[in-house]
């Protein structure tokens, strides 16, 4: 996830094609560190988003509009005054710096043609949008930087603009063969780190990719590379630079299941295990990627309270189970007391009143045993005392056996809810989980008098197998029950990860015999949507739906079956087609 110089080079090519020659029709500043500029060109309207956010600096073309404040900030007013109807002459990038320069032509108060530059710097916490004249004198910036804030460069009106070269990196577009070998490959660093600390525009991700394409381990020190490896790394670098110079980009997002994990302007060969969605526009890629990321982040934030409730309940039940099992262990001596009572009833006639022990043989095992006695009680009363102890411990053991089973069922249920929270994709999924927690007493239900319970709509995940069979995945326990007992018919196939929380997977057979590939793909879905998602292999149970039963009083999603098959599946679903 690197918004590096290579990604910006891809954006520059796209912006140059779309915006050069266009006229600015509107400038808005919806956020303190963000501009939204509307440009009309070739009978098309484009919205250019420029964000100098310290946490997420971005630039891309968007179709979304943002409402600006009622009173425009000073920086926005200055831009409107000078370039409000200006013509974009060029969009350039100096080297592979994380900088874009928008050169705009406009007419001044006297009607003469002038040029101004809007310079966007995407440098993490140092990101900025700087407005300069044709002589590179700063007119204003969206963030003012004084000498008290930075000893490297002031960004204030009237100061000269220059690119700060604090790390003395080399331009990869112009680097010579000698510098590559004598500067980059002589650094006492791992190869990948030597690349991104020497060359402008290279992020750690792209440095690792360069090493991977060259068949090298990016963590290998540069002095450990032999001559053929160095030559291969240089030639691989030259090929990558040729693609950048020629604009041969192929943007794409890499997904692990439904979650986006990375994006890049080129196919990343190091991520060949992930599914990749190509884009014909880097702007659309960025908008999609960060929208998906924001959606997942938002769902995780919204589920934080539910996760806390589940984790607290799990912790409480875990402590309860430990205590119950300890009490159960204490009841293991109950049979000893029963045997003591039986031995006293059998051999107590031989005891004298002053005896403190009965030494005899346990007729169950043939081993000698000593039975302690209370001298103030008769042998019969001692026997009754031991039988009473036995009865009390037996009743305790019977009660604990039921309680332990209930506690284990509660823990398994809560773990299944925890897994469902990991699977949840939208607020509807969270509302179903909240409803389940409420029905089970973990969350207090707030219902107004006379209000009717809203009917829940179930939307399970839907996949298509390579052989064309429909495969459905429940995202929580209520969806699992709906799928298995209301949606599926007796001849459909049911899949579930063995011995762990996970989703029910239903394959609609339509009365046909399923091919082996469909069984394997359904098993992979059951493995991926389970607690074993991170394991290399997961054991999957599968059977016909008609063999599935739900015990009376069981927790939501809990089923039993006595006839099943098993298979080992990897939790990898990148090549399984999901429908909307």
Automatic annotation (TrEMBL):
One of its GO terms (cellular component) is RQC complex. The keyword Protein biosynthesis applies. InterPro entries: NFACT_RNA-bd (IPR008532), RQC_Subunit_NEMF (IPR051608), RqcH_bacterial (IPR043682). Residues 390-417 form a coiled coil. Associates with stalled 50S ribosomal subunits. Binds to RqcP. Keywords: Coiled coil, Protein biosynthesis, RNA-binding, rRNA-binding, tRNA-binding. Key component of the ribosome quality control system (RQC), a ribosome-associated complex that mediates the extraction of incompletely synthesized nascent chains from stalled ribosomes and their subsequent degradation. RqcH recruits Ala-charged tRNA, and with RqcP directs the elongation of stalled nascent chains on 50S ribosomal subunits, leading to non-templated C-terminal alanine extensions (Ala tail). The Ala tail promotes nascent chain degradation. May add between 1 and at least 8 Ala residues. Binds to stalled 50S ribosomal subunits. Residues 462-553 form the NFACT RNA-binding domain. This is Rqc2 homolog RqcH. The keyword Lipid biosynthesis does not apply. One of its GO terms (molecular function) is rRNA binding. GO terms for biological process: rescue of stalled ribosome. It holds the Pfam family NFACT-R_1. Belongs to the NEMF family. It comes from the Bacteria.
């Amino acid at each position: 996830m690197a918004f590096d110089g290579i990604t910006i080079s891809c954006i520059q090519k796209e912006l140059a094609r779309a915006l050069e020659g266009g006229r600015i029709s509107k400038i808005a500043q919806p956020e303190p560190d963000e501009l939204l500029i509307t440009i009309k060109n070739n009978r098309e309207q484009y919205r250019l988003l420029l964000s100098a956010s310290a946490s997420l600096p971005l630039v891309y073309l968007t179709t979304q509009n943002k409402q600006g404040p009622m009173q425009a900030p000073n920086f926005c007013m200055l831009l409107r005054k000078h370039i409000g109807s200006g013509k974009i002459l060029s969009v350039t990038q100096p080297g592979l710096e994380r900088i874009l320069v928008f050169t705009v032509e406009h007419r001044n108060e006297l009607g003469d043609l002038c040029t101004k530059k809007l310079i966007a710097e995407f440098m993490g916490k140092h990101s900025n949008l700087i407005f300069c004249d044709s002589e590179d004198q700063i007119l204003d910036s969206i963030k003012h930087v004084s000498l008290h804030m930075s000893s490297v460069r002031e960004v204030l009106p009237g100061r000269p603009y220059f690119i700060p070269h604090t790390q003395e990196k080399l331009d990869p577009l112009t680097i010579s063969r000698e510098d590559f070998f004598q500067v980059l490959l002589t650094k006492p660093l791992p190869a990948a780190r030597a690349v991104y600390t020497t060359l402008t525009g290279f992020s750690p991700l792209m440095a690792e990719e360069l090493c991977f394409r060259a068949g090298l381990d990016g963590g290998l020190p540069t002095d450990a590379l032999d001559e053929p490896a160095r030559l291969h790394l240089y030639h691989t670098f030259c090929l990558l630079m040729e693609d950048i110079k020629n604009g041969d980009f192929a943007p794409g997002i890499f997904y692990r299941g439904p979650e986006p994990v990375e994006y890049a302007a080129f196919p990343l060969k190091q991520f060949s295990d992930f599914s990749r969605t190509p884009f014909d526009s880097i702007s659309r890629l960025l908008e999609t990627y960060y929208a998906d990321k924001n959606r997942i982040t938002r769902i995780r934030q919204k589920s934080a309270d539910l996760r806390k409730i589940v984790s607290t309940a799990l912790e409480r039940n875990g402590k309860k189970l430990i205590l119950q099992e300890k009490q159960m262990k204490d009841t293991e001596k109950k049979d000893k007391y029963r045997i003591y009572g039986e031995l006293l009833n059998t051999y107590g006639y031989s005891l004298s009143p002053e005896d403190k022990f009965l030494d005899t043989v346990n007729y169950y095992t043939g081993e000698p045993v000593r039975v302690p006695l209370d001298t103030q009680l008769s042998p019969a009363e001692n026997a009754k005392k031991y039988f009473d102890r036995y009865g009390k411990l037996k009743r305790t053991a019977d009660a604990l056996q039921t309680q332990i089973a209930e506690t284990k069922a509660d823990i398994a249920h809560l773990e299944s809810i925890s897994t469902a929270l990991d699977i949840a994709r939208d607020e509807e999924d969270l509302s179903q989980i909240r409803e389940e927690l409420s029905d089970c007493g973990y969350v207090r239900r707030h219902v107004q008098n006379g209000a009717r319970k809203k009917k829940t709509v179930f939307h399970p995940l839907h996949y298509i197998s390579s052989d064309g069979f429909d495969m459905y995945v429940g995202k929580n326990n209520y969806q699992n029950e709906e799928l298995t007992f209301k949606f599926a018919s007796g001849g459909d196939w049911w899949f579930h990860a063995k011995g762990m929380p996970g989703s029910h997977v239903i394959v609609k057979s339509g009365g046909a015999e399923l091919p082996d590939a469909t069984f394997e793909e359904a098993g992979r879905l059951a493995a991926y949507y389970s607690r074993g998602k991170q394991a290399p292999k997961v054991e999957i149970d599968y059977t016909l739906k008609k063999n599935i039963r739900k015990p009376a009083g069981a927790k939501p999603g809990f089923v039993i079956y006595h006839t099943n098959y098993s298979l080992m599946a990897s939790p990898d679903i990148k090549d399984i087609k999901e429908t909307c």
